[in-house]
Design brief:
The structure is a homodimer. Chain A has helices at about 10-20, 35-40, 60-70, 85-90, 105-120, 150-165, 170-180, 190-200; strands spanning about 1-5, 25-30, 45-50, 75-80, 95-100, 125-130, 130-135, 140-145, 145-150, 205-210, 215. The first copy, chain A, has about 220 residues and is an alpha/beta fold. The structure holds a DNA duplex (30 and 30 nucleotides).
DNA sequence: AGCGATATTCAGATTATGTTCAGGGGAAAC
DNA sequence: GTTTCCCCTGAACATAATCTGAATATCGCT
């Protein structure tokens, strides 16, 4: 999952980036409203964390523009304690959740997960696909109840495919959601990771759709062959 | 486990701090309601001991603010003998337990342990994980029935990981819950302690999840590789 | 068969984690 | 009050896991 953080306080944004990366998200940082708006406009984020008190363009305006443009990603806004009115304006502009500064990182993470899974139409943090179970809150995966050891990128890949189970996902989409801005996309890393994942969770769980991409499936449902 | 004590009586707070540290908690002290509120807002405590009769902001208000902000940590309130009404107000504001001053330290400790274990979803003070047994009431640990000699910080680490068994715990989270306020977080102390713990309880009980953190497991349950 | 697409394998680079050690500080013992 | 001992800390160094990109093999379609 790829997250955009729009926050002008350098300390806080660094802290957020570290924490988010720790949990296995790809993260981009924007330091002011303009940069933030532009990134949100051009990159396919899975969620955005948006401070409302921003230089250049304020957060509410950024959010309004995004929504006016039809951007759907969930947005979690951050407000200072006393900016109650801003918070309301933020919700009116299309925010999905808010958090008052200061906050505990753990709480932010929990809310973010809630947004991500709501956006994907799930109600829990764990996704089950025919014996394969992916737990986003603890970054673990199980096959038939047995814990599987996955590396950070392997889990990102699996997690993204799991939240979009059944859909064909292109290599490009995977790269965009698993890596952040600075990544050299031509290389076969995705194939390599898919290969490694298959070896760990079972070859038949990831279908290749020639020319389009991959699809995570429940092997027991796939009879036609 | 990291505890916040909000208490204006210097003697009492010092006594509490000593007692709590003896048992292996990390402890922060706040001397008035305002400081207490701020700490509870910004640091991730596992439990709070809150005197209701406080200068600057009274205890009930502090508690209300926390709960309004969504803070979930268990709170044990302290009241003077004759403040029955305050006690009720405290419960209404979201307290989890209370104690009337004066009280015996042992009773406070016992109630605190009860709160901590309830918060973690356990029903006893000792946690068993495949032959490893962690007893929070006596701050001891056993492997296959044999008592193990752990230093204070080793036990803190183990205890925290045990109450969150199976979950991956980041270095950051460990530092935040094992140390109190004044601690320089960049250093490799966590790795050092994990190393020492492993030597004492067995290497395979603490899994490292590269890029994320550590996880305490029952080695017999982890077969998949 | 031939072509483009996907898989697999591998090695070097990179980074995260492990280990060892010495000095300081504090508590207990004397 | 002094000594002793144990533990914590932080640094330096060693090791190990993972990522990446390329080279090579295989597949599936026309």
């Amino acid at each position: 999952m790829r997250i955009l953080v729009v926050e002008d306080d350098a300390d806080l944004s660094r802290q957020l980036r570290d924490a988010l990366k720790d949990v296995g998200y790809a993260v981009d940082i924007a330091n002011d409203g303009e940069e933030g708006h532009h990134l949100g406009d051009t990159e396919p984020y899975d969620a955005v964390i948006l401070d409302l008190g921003l230089p250049v363009i304020d957060g509410v305006s950024v959010l309004q523009k995004w929504r006016a443009d039809g951007k759907k990603f969930p947005v979690l806004i951050l407000t200072a304690r006393d900016q109650w009115s801003e918070k309301v304006a933020g919700f009116d502009a299309g925010a999905d959740d808010y958090l008052t500064k200061p906050f505990h990182t753990e709480e932010l993470m929990a809310r973010l997960r809630a947004l991500l899974r709501r956006a994907a139409g799930h109600t829990t943090d764990t996704i089950d696909i025919g014996g394969l179970s992916v737990d986003n809150s603890s970054a673990r995966a199980f096959v038939d109840g047995m814990s599987i050891k996955l590396t950070s990128h392997e889990f990102r890949l699996l997690s993204y495919m799991a939240t979009h189970r059944g859909r064909v996902i292109s290599r490009t989409e995977l790269v965009e959601h698993i890596y952040d801005q600075d990544f050299d996309r031509d290389s076969n890393t995705i194939e390599v990771f898919v290969g490694r994942l298959r070896r760990k969770i079972g070859t038949d769980r990831i279908e290749t759709v020639r020319g389009l991409g991959y699809r995570l499936v429940d092997p027991s449902e796939t009879k036609a062959k």
